[in-house]
Write a structure and sequence with these properties.
The protein is mostly beta strands and about 500 residues long. Helices cover about 10% and strands about 40% of the residues.
């Protein structure tokens, strides 16, 4: 199991036959399930994950509804067939392969080849591996192109100090010759020093430490020398890596701000917002990205853009025997010079707080942006989440427990250090009458360490969801908050069984 797909496998454990999901533009989650009788379980699990923030939504947006669809294949089946194809392609059994994806929107494996004349080869390989023909769709597409500029393109700002993510940089050879324009992804602490992270292809030798330099305007202004760019690992006859990322060490005297991304005046703008000149990185993605999720990208050429994730954990095969594994696709306007730029989403911890999702890598054959997820970058460069976050002190995750007092639910929690208040959420439903709340609803702010409710209950079931043969359920979770923002994540959800 790939780490990026652990959440999907957990959903299949909860709902056997689960075959993936995606969120559409109207806020409806579409869930594939092989057994229609398990649709209610899948529906509740999806509501729970979105309501608790495990699956992030834009600030102020709510899940509208969950649409259960008939699926033919489970996640584990699709992953197994995808892996069979990956191993065969890695041993050069299909040199025309461009992309391989466990596609959550179609409940299929998607295989892309570079010309229609290779469809027969792809189908022959699928048959030889004894994969059901209906489980794989074969499409035609071109290989991605890196999103670095071939000349020093117009970039975000002339100069920004201290250095941070999302501003223009130029890549130079050791002799000072400028080769391309790119974008800084993010800054980080590493040991007692600091680093600037951008795309590996914004250097002389991709996946190899060399003497490449990065500069910020003016071009004589050195801000980093490449120091980390792993060589990858053998995967069959090819070489694989999970990210297109490299780290550069700044020279003495170059100041960096860790946990900040340049913020523009608006979409497509190349000048800073005078009222709030940066985004604050308060969190990182934790293998919880999904198809349909809203993300932003800051690039030196096109500025700030917004779009949606279209594929997760794709494998891209280039023509010189290298594979970028488990990349993420998004429908985001991207141009040359945007390579390395940060991908993020606004997380609701505060007005300017964002979750770092990754860095821009390439433009796909259909014009989509391909980016390396933060967790893949972190694995390659050996960094931890706290090395890239702003130093704001957010409250820790609350630990929730429950009891029944005079026939009514009461929830309590130990006080969280630095927390000044708690935001409480509730969802309830009664099966017989089909009455209930519209998902999880905000109940208000609590300043004590307990809260009661007026819904009669007869059992506290903790983390176990009351089954569908019971009268109904009521469930709670909460966030701890302070002046910096709110805890990430929320507490675990705790459940009670409604009384008849």
């Amino acid at each position: 199991m790939r780490p990026a797909e652990a959440m999907l496998f957990a959903m299949e454990q909860e709902t056997p036959g689960f075959g993936g999901f995606y969120l559409d533009q109207d806020g409806t989650a579409h869930v594939f399930v092989k057994d229609a009788a398990r649709g209610g379980t899948a529906q509740f699990g999806m509501q729970r994950r979105f309501s608790s923030g495990e699956l992030p939504l834009p600030a102020g947006q709510r899940l509208q509804r969950v649409n259960v669809r008939a699926g033919q294949f489970s996640i584990s089946e699709l992953a197994a067939w995808r892996d069979l194809l990956f191993d065969a392609i890695s041993n050069n059994e299909l040199p025309s392969a461009v992309k391989l994806d466990l596609n959550e929107q179609t409940n299929r494996v998607k295989l892309v080849v570079e010309s229609g004349v290779f469809r027969a080869d792809a189908n022959k390989l699928i048959g030889r591996l004894a994969i059901p023909s209906g489980a794989v769709t074969v499409e035609v597409g071109t290989r991605p192109t890196d999103a670095r500029s071939l000349a020093n393109a117009r970039q975000v700002l002339d100069q920004w100090r201290p250095m941070l993510g999302g501003v223009g940089i130029s890549w130079h050879l050791a002799n000072g010759t400028v080769r391309a324009g790119c974008t800084s992804g993010f800054t980080m602490r590493k040991g007692s020093g600091f680093r600037i992270v951008t795309a590996s292809h914004c250097s002389s030798s991709e996946w190899s430490v060399d003497a490449s330099l990065i500069k910020n305007s003016p071009q004589t202004n050195l801000v980093g020398t490449e120091s980390e760019d792993p060589s990858g690992y053998s995967c069959g006859l090819r070489t694989c890596r999970g990210s297109d990322a490299a780290a550069f060490t700044p020279p003495s005297g170059v100041a960096l701000d860790v946990g900040y991304i340049a913020r523009m005046r608006g979409f497509g703008q190349l000048y800073e917002d005078s009222t709030a000149s940066y985004w604050i990185v308060s969190d990182v993605e934790t293998n919880n990205m999904y198809v349909g999720q809203v993300v932003y990208r800051q690039g030196a050429t096109t500025g700030l853009v917004q779009g949606n994730i279209s594929d997760t954990c794709d494998d891209y095969f280039n023509s010189w025997n290298r594979t970028r594994t488990c990349q993420t696709d998004a429908i985001l306007l991207t141009n040359q010079g945007d390579s390395g730029g940060p991908i993020f989403w606004v997380n609701g911890q505060g007005a300017n707080y964002v979750t770092l999702a990754g860095i821009a890598s390439a433009v796909g054959g259909s014009g989509n942006l391909i980016f390396s997820a933060y967790q893949r970058v972190a694995t390659d460069l050996g960094i931890a989440s706290f090395d890239v976050k702003h130093s704001s002190t957010f409250p820790a995750q609350p630990v929730l427990s429950g009891s029944i007092v005079n026939g009514y639910p009461q929830i309590s929690w130990p006080s969280v250090a630095t927390a000044t208040a708690y935001h409480l959420y509730r969802q309830w439903y009664r099966y017989g009458t089909e009455q209930g709340s519209n998902g999880y609803e905000y109940m208000g702010t609590v300043t004590s360490s307990w809260a009661g409710d007026a819904l009669p209950v007869d059992a506290y079931t903790g983390t176990s969801f009351p089954n569908f043969s019971t009268p109904g359920y009521v469930s709670y979770y909460l966030f701890a908050t302070n002046s910096s923002g709110r805890s990430s994540p929320a507490s675990e959800i705790k459940h009670f069984r409604l009384a008849p």
